[in-house]
Specification:
A: ten-stranded mixed beta sheet, 12 strands, 22% strand, B: two-stranded antiparallel ribbon, 2 strands, globular
Chain lengths: 281, 279
Amino acid sequence: MITHSSSRGLARLFVVAALLLPLGCSRASKTAITLAGSTSVEPFAERLAELYTRAHPDAEISVQGGGSSAGIRACQSRICAIGMSSRELTPEEKGLVEIPIAHDAIALIVNARNPVRVMTLEQARDVFAGRIRNWKELGGPNQRITPITREEGSGTRASFEEKVMVAGMPKDKDGKANPAAFAPDALVQDSNGSVREIVASDPAAIGYISSGLIDERVAAILLGGVAPTEATIRSGRYPVVRQFLFLTNGEATGTAKAFIEYVLSDSGQRTLTEEGLTRIK
Amino acid sequence: MREKLIEKGLLLVAFSAVAMIFLIAYLIFREGVPLVAKVGVWDFIASTRWAPSKGSFGILPMIVGSLEVTLLAVIIGATLGLSCAMFLAEFAPRWSVRILKPMIELLAGIPSVVYGFIGVVVLIPFIRRTFGGPGFSVLAAAIILGIMILPTVIAISLDALNAVPPLYKEGSLALGATRWQTLHRVVLPAARSGIIAAFILGMGRAIGETMAVIMVAGNALTMPTSLLQPVRTLTSNIALEMGYASGDHQAALFATGMVLFVIIAILNTIALVIARPRT
């Protein structure tokens, strides 16, 4: 009896909370819009929104995370005006307007004290698949390799998998290569930052992060002899590049349209470059 | 009248805590059971491959990892904690108790992310240099957890030791036993159930701890065969992957929580049976 009444009270609380939620995020009025999606794009979108609203005080832009998949779903159901994705859309998700806003290269990083600087895509694949286990095999010191990967579901991991782990793998009848599996004993970290910290402190470690986050304690591997620089990323010569996408359901209007124009403008693109991405225009 | 009202009010509050447990259990099982039914109980808890996006849901390495880390942490925490409690209860001069006790209680107030951070900055490089391997390991997680459960173990076993009637001690001393003999032949057995309760509560904290473990355990998906290998625990698996998971992957994480729930229930039951005072 008593448990019953208290759980009814709880249920009431949940209902109230559920009613309040949509007030926070949906309802595109003339001036207020919401962006939702990829946590990789989120910090850049926040920076852009901050600069945009400073110049246009009448506009209100709120930026939420949730992951690429959640952003795509939210955009499809018009819960948010602009969805953000750090991966390509699957065939089932097509139908939204895709607006690439920047390139983001994924760099393979090693400790600055590690002498190995060049790898082929196949060697990189073998390191993360656990087939190459000693730096000696890559021309480095006689020392075991500690590969660090990201957690299952991460957009960075998905891009790395479809660009590096498929290299040289046999193709099936649809012409799609199956990615090699990550070594089970590879360390798993849940952010770009912690991957970088481990590589910075362990000379035997290798990991992959967004190239904008490289600092002087780690060095980028030249994949197939190509360094991730603005020129090689834009020309497509650097092999592990993904696009950050804005998504709209139909043509954007009002504040959403103005904001997208700002992001693609010279000053918007310059902001993204300053923040470590590579401009798309 | 007023008395009755307060009584009823308190009863309601007490039961709402129980209702919360049932609500949590219900939600976890509702999400997790369909997936386990689909995959098969045996394949879920006894296969070693975890690749949710490719349809493999085996959590055996994480079950083993959780138990291994917890057991080792309790061994470390219990040894240090009980020794400390024994010293504080029987041998420590009054002034040192006044300094030591608040310091130990302070340990409990340090957020787990700080323990994890210290593990990453100090312990991991130390293990890497001394024993080789990546440093992120079962050993690192167990040491950090062993320290984290110290305040719980010390506080509760100290209470248990202090609760032993002074008559017992005086009787033993009067018979000519030394202080050490009195402590380990008389006081410790008398405080037995309280001390075991202290270990159990410490174990509960260790198996449930997430943040610090994610930071130092390495989270690899292998079956840990050596103390220097990286390991993933059940709690870290949920916390690591919850952010992006959807569909079956998300259900599998709820199912991981389900397994954790069952393990904790079993451990607590065993503990209750052991800790029951002898009659």
